[in-house]
Amino acid sequence: MTTTRITDELSLEIRGAVALIRLTRPAKRNAINDSLVLGLRDVFENLGSEVKAAVIEGEGDHFCAGLDLSELSERDAVGGMHHSRMWHKALDAVQFGPVPVVSALHGAVVGGGLELASATHIRVADESTFYALPEGSRGIFVGGGGSVRVPRLVGVARMTDMMLTGRVYNAQDGERAGFAQYLVPAGQALAKAMELAEKIAQNAPTTNFALTHVLPRIADQTADHGLMTEALMAAIAQSAPEAKERVKAFLEGRANKVRKD
Question: Is 15 helix (H, G, I), strand (E, B) or coil?
Fold first, then answer.
């Protein structure tokens, strides 16, 4: 394992085929400043070819409590737009980067922290997790892609309620609503996220690419266009040499069959 300090707020550890990216501002509840968000962008734009999956977690008691408002500078409308677009580029690098990403959630997943989590492909929450979007009570609006990504997880009505009323979801209600796909006992989110990432890393790269890059775009298309995109992606995936070998292994009884746990 090798650990690299990316910035004062971010570290990168390579564990085999999995990259563990850690937010390291525990005294600030891992609140996101410009240095951290730009560090995330740089990490995902420069992952080595040996990395096949990634995990994001937060050091300390919280995953991420959102935007660091103490560093929020005065901006005019144009400056605010460019700042938001900088966040969009960084979180696009997470969602549409080279590998699938699992987030290990605990404590606060609030504001920009929820925007970051919603850019990951699988979210594992432990029982200490809670979710909120307090921007409405602070006179601001989400700017890191939350208006696009969060409704796709939980729906427009739930996001509207959270921002209008300050509603906070606990871990259990959050899992039922769709914020996370997995809920584990307190302190076990990282272990479960690493377990899932290691399993994902064993998939055929073309399939992982199809699921992280193509499937979200199919969801945005009309049914007719989506079916055509699906057909093209299916043809590409099954023509890959690794896919042919995996199907052959299954037919010859050398691959595991799907079983109920």
Answer: strand
The rounded distance, in Å, linking the Cα atoms of 133 and 115 is: 9
**CA atoms within a 13 Å half-sphere pointing along the CA-CB vector of 209:** 9
135 annotated active-site: yes
The active-site residue, picked from 9, 57, 115, 175, is 115
C-alpha angle 28/33/35, rounded to 5°? 120
**What confidence tens digit (pLDDT) does each residue in 53-99 have?**
999 999 999 999 998 877 666 778 898 899 999 999 999 999 999 99
Residue pLDDT, tens place only, 176-226: 999 999 999 999 999 999 999 999 999 999 999 999 999 999 999 999 999
- Domain 2-200 and domain 205-251 have a common topology: no
Q: What are the tokens at 144?
A: 């890191």
Sequence-distant (6+) residues with CB within 8 A of 36 are 7, 9, 10, 23, 25
Amino acid at 136: G
- Would you place residue 50 in the very low, low, confident or very high pLDDT band (cuts 50, 70, 90)? very high
For domain 205-251, which CATH number applies: 3.30.479.30, 3.40.720.10, 3.20.20.80, 1.10.12.10?
A: 1.10.12.10
74 included as an active-site residue:
no
Least Cα distance to 150 among 185, 109, 186 occurs for 109
Q: Which residues pair with 184 in a beta bridge?
A: 126
| Domain spans in the chain, listed from the N-terminal domain onward | 2-200, 205-251
DSSP strand pairing (10-15 vs 108-110): unpaired
Considering the candidates 13, 135, 195, 230, report the single residue annotated as catalytic.
135
Query: What is the CATH topology of the domain spanning 2-200?
Result: 2-enoyl-CoA Hydratase; Chain A, domain 1 (3.90.226)
